[in-house]
Amino acid sequence: MAEQAIRFSVSKQRRFRSATWKIFAQTHKDDVYLTCREFRGAMKVSFHESGKWHLGFDKTFLDKNAPKNSPLLVNRFPLKWQEPQELSPGVILAFRILVPEHVINIPKKEERKSLVWIPSPPKNKAVEIAIFLIHPEVKVSSWPGAKAMGTSLVGNIELDSGKIIWVVNRVIESPPLKHPPRGKGTFFRNLTPEQEKGQGLRAIGIGEHKDGSWYFRECLVKKLTRKRK
Predict the structure, then answer these.
(1) Domains of the chain by residue range
(2) Which candidate, 203, 199, 201, 200, places its Cα nearest to that of 186?
(3) pLDDT at 199
(4) Distance between CA atoms of 16 and 117, rounded to whole angstroms?
(5) 130 by DSSP, 3-state: which?
(6) What is the pTM of this model?
(7) d(Cα 31, Cα 58) in Å, to the nearest integer?
């Protein structure tokens, strides 16, 4: 099937970038998916037309790369939820991605023309990337939040049903991590040579916003070195 896709990343000084994200839909279907390139097809968020949404991991990837005691080998869909309530008639905030300024440290090897480059926020700020689902009966003159929230457009995808997926971004205060995350993180064994040296090693945190929508937060993972006595 033909695919409609938007690929985007946050760029700093034309030298560094954040993780690369892709949101896509297939022709003749209203199912939409979100993936992170750094996970190399291992994980995706599925926004199904049925309203049953989930975060899932690829079974083949888990069999090769997940630790033997990983709970993902028992349940590869660790997060399931229903389509959020409408913010206003026909308008749904589907998902967010938070990219703090300090995590934008992956060296840019090339300028990929297929990528939408989002400008880096100022120091101690973050880029909030929001994914909206707009029903066809909603009449819009611009993208969501253009006037009220000062958002900038990343791109949009029009589905066969007439629904439109809008991807926008804005600069916000970098949300502090006030509490330790619950549960345990999962470490996979598919690191690149650069990541094994601690370069560009990162994690994706998952959280629920107070409005009922879910979000990813891009985080750094620092390689610890033992001090000699």
Answers:
(1) 3-220
(2) 203
(3) 54
(4) 11
(5) strand
(6) 0.86
(7) 17
